Amino acid sequence: MTDDGEQQPESLLPYDEWTSDALRQVMVRALVSVAGQGLPGGHHFYITFRTDAPGVQIPPRLRAQYPHEMTIVLQHQFWDMKVDEAAGWFNVTLSFSGVPSPLHIPFSAVVAFADPHVRYGVRFSDPPAVPAEPADAPPLLSGPPPQSPVEQPAEEPQQVVSLDAFRRRTPPTGRDH
Questions:
Q1: For residue 94, which of 145, 56, 54 has the smallest C-alpha distance?
Q2: What is the C-alpha to C-alpha distance for residues 72 and 104, in angstroms, rounded to an integer?
């Protein structure tokens, strides 16, 4: 409703979809940057994605453990990060319980992206549809990982991360109340 009580007309333009696409592009640009140059400073990413979305390729043991949704953390150690912006996906290898696990994630499967270092986060309400099988998705790596050690992201049950801990607090005034 408008201020004068009138009903707002329904938009014939898909503003919500355009906004979601624009925010998703911010995530894609961050991933492209990290794939090419690594994570700068204290930046790190929490990426939540639908494991049951079309095109997602993860090891069967992870799919069994996370049948619907999973959050990964890209921080200190990960490898084989590749982003194909045109095809709409990224690959990364992480270690779960000491086992290197390649992940292939279409951008459209991502439902949340956050960089707590700068208090940035976005949740995508309606991810666009993904083709059932991406034709140009590379096969997941099956050989041994590179020499570098790998961080072990979340093995616990799905948790919601509160960003309140990262918000700035007002300093005490020095007055007693």
A1: 145
A2: 12
